[in-house]
Design a protein that fits this description.
With 270 residues, this protein is of the alpha+beta class. 49% of the residues lie in helices and 11% in strands. Helix 4 (95-111) runs antiparallel to helix 5. The longest helix has 20 residues, at 49-68. The N and C termini lie far apart (70 Å).
């Protein structure tokens, strides 16, 4: 049961704070309203003057966060049944659990024709080669901006490659936030552009198209339909995937036009 007097004197605790009398000890309890629900939480602290001031300050801090829409129950009371009630229970899932779940979703998207096999292969390479080796056993709740910032800074790749690596992780964390497994996406607290400007590797790739002499040499060495194919490729500018998917039926001989409507990627036509 509770009482209003403080241990050792008759002074009443501040509003919302109660001294609880248990069988052998006393503790502090404070109450507050959250989402129209009366919440009471117990602090395993003896009712000294200092502890009562602490309980009062903690209650006021929670009330401020509730007013600002920033209160997350599990941040303060991770083992409370109320955390489960409000969907704020600390998740026991790992980052690896979510990544593997996303991979299954991508595979279903390919089966349903909503994603290309080449896109799936790209995600698989990033998730299996980069993300799972680093974050497989990391608890979702422990994934902090500082950890991610250090990891990104040490990738040693170009800015474009870094963004491709981060993209599926961001998607996983956005879904976790929407499912209320985490309160914030830790990637949102990283100034990514600034970080990559300082740490990303400069790209050494240079565009090196065939010049006129090289095109002439290639055509001179080719024969028959192979020569026709290369000559058409040089002057049409088709992507390789579009070129190899081209069929005779795509040619409009009357109007001298070619209809580009397919591509073949990873042996799959799309």
């Amino acid at each position: 049961m509770g009482r209003t007097g403080k241990s050792g004197d008759n002074k009443r605790p501040p509003r919302g704070v109660t001294i609880r009398q248990h069988e052998n000890v006393e503790s502090l309890q404070f109450s507050f309203n959250f989402r129209k629900v009366q919440c009471r939480e117990t602090l395993r602290l003896s009712p000294t003057a200092a502890n009562i001031r602490y309980a009062e300050g903690l209650r006021l801090e929670i009330l401020r966060k509730i007013a600002d829409g920033a209160f997350w129950y599990a941040d303060y009371f991770p083992d409370s049944p109320k955390a489960i009630l409000f969907g704020h229970a600390a998740s026991r899932k790992t980052v690896g659990d979510l990544l593997r779940g996303h991979l299954k979703g991508y595979e279903k998207a390919v089966a349903n024709g909503q994603m290309s096999p080449s896109t799936l292969n790209g995600y698989k390479k990033v998730i299996n080669g980069r993300l799972l080796p680093k974050f497989d056993d990391t608890a979702l709740k422990d994934l902090a901006p500082a950890m991610l910032r250090e990891w990104i800074a040490g990738l040693g790749v170009t800015a474009k490659t870094a963004r491709n690596i981060i993209s599926p992780l961001r998607s996983v964390l956005d879904d976790a936030m929407n499912d209320e497994l985490i309160q914030h996406n830790p990637l949102d607290k990283i100034a990514l552009k600034k970080l990559l400007t300082r740490t990303a590797k400069k790209s050494e790739y240079e565009v090196d198209p065939f010049d006129d002499a090289e095109k002439t040499a290639i055509l001179a060495a080719a024969e028959g339909q192979a020569r026709n194919l290369f000559q058409f490729a040089f002057w049409s500018g088709l992507r390789t995937s579009e070129l190899i998917a081209l069929e005779w039926g795509d040619i409009d001989w009357i109007h001298d036009q070619v209809g580009v409507q397919r591509a073949i990627v990873v042996k799959t036509q799309k």
